[in-house]
Amino acid sequence: MLALLSIVGACGKGTGNDEIIPPDPDEEEPTNVDDFFTNPLLPRGADPWVTQKDGTYYYTYTQGSKLVLYVTKKISELANVTPINAWVPPPGTMYSQNIWAPELHEIDGKWYMYFAADNGSNANHRMYVVENKSSSPVRGSWEFKGKIAVPNDEWAIDGTIMTHKEQLYFLWSGSNRGASPQKIYIAKMTNPWTIEGDRTEIAAPIYDWEKHNGAINEGPQVLINPEGSVFVVYSASSFSSDRYALGLLSLKDGGDPMNPEDWTKHAEPVFSMNAESGAFGPGHNGFFKSPDGTEDWIIYHARNLPDGGNTNYRNARIQKFTWNSDGSPNFGIPVKIGEKIKRPSGE
Known about the structure:
Oligomer: single chain
Order of helices and strands: EEEEEEEEEEEEEEEEEEEEEEE
Largest sheet: 5 strands, antiparallel
Number of strands: 23
CATH superfamily: Glycosyl hydrolase domain, family 43
């Protein structure tokens, strides 16, 4: 059986090294500035990703030329962390350049980093994975395991994984040589670096809000609610558009992830631009728990400026989210830049 630790439903309850003292219900809510943080966490941080284990957060993002990791007990203090170079690709390969949207996962006691890369030409973007057999992703060494591809080996980015009923799956965004439309696919895996059989398309851009500056569905992220229902949160439209937003897919209870008829796409975005918040093009997200395991949080990138801003300055932001009565996630609206946010519970 595959034992998967990621940020989708299987997150452990880490408490860190500090003693957590419950607040006195008769006392007023703390107002010390140290109890709060503000977004953005970092001035840059396209395609942010967080996973956690034993009270430690591991953060990564699209650095471009290598895989990096930030290690911290307090995700709200990410700006104080010095990144670690986890893996640098050798020159002159098909995966040496344009490393995008890395993700860190632990599977059966080993660590894996999934990423898209090419040889300098976007048309050659494919998904790849490296493996670390150490108990910690910042110890030991990373071994290149290879390309993750289906038989037709088309353009692919934004890969992630899901375990459902003891079966490991790979989800990603793909298209014909990187041209619109970009769709979301799923395939079974025989191990963390090998796809079994062919892919199934589970989402394509069909609504107007998914077609700003390009018809795109990308950045799939698996989210499992407290009742065990499976969702995929994805990004829609081009990342360069202010209208870049998050959409939602729902897997029918008891459904087969490989059957496209068992997936339902919600007709409206679930998280989108808010000019008053200084959140333009919010998207490409991940999920994590608070240190004490009581809160659900989303991490995403956005730009401070409108009209495409400077797409190089997508920055990482986090905020707490809740669940609707039908079991779907409620992300609210992006929190305003500079607005005080209570730190994740347990920090």
